[in-house]
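Hi all, long-time lurker, first post. I run a small reading group and we've been trying to get comfortable going from sequence to structure in the token notation. Rather than ask abstract questions, I figured I'd post a concrete chain and ask someone more experienced to write out its structure so we can walk through it together at our next meeting. Sequence below, copied exactly:
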Amino acid sequence: MNIQDRCLKAIRAFHEELRVRGEGELSEDDVRALCERMLPHLAEEMKEKKIREVLANYFAEGTMVEAMLDPLDPDHGMYWSEFYLWCQSVSATLIPDASERDDFLQDLFFHFQRKLDKYHFQKPLQNWAFAVIRNFLRDRYRRQQRRKTISLDDFQESLPTARPSAQDLVEQKVRAALLERMLEKLISDRDLLILRLTLQKGEGGKKMTDTDIAREVGLKPGSVSKTRRRILARLRNDPDLRALVAALFGEDYLQDEGE
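-- Answer (accepted) --
Happy to help. Here is the structure in token form:
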């Protein structure tokens, strides 16, 4: 029996339980449609018991998760707003220092947005979310420890000040790639994308507006502006991060409007 047949068998047994308890009826078309939606979350070697577990989690949370993954779904914003409040509650518990909590909350929330498509209903959503948080905290601690030992002197001293030769250009690209990877470990992918798009010029040499950037990253224009201010404040106040961004994007990238 292949995975599709085992999935159909599990759904029919689950449907019978629902029917006996008076909790709903599924037509044969509904059963097959549910199986099609579940198949991407199943592995060929799964036993029926595990398929039943995935089915129970999918039946309970599939509508919400799929809406969160689909920006065009009418409930997309509502579910993410509810999830943000949950992240806010978790952050308040984990980070007593209010001055650090906002950055932690934003990073954690964006981390979940990047990770959600990896959730395959193998366990209840909340259990999966707590496992993600544990890994996030462990990686955050490692980044903090690594930052204490990072030195940019070797990179900065070797940045070319005169017109570079072909060899210099190759070496500069290698350094830039290394610096960029370091930067990506220190701030979130979405933060980095907002920084890049802020600098990027579009047609006619004009910089992208917050509305353009919001469309690219899936935020509201006001949220882009707020996020950028938070990122730049952090980078300006951290000599190592400011040096990294200056090496990658240019010194003016971190200047205040009044500078």
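A couple of things your group might point at:
Residues 3-69 form one domain.
The mean pLDDT is 76.
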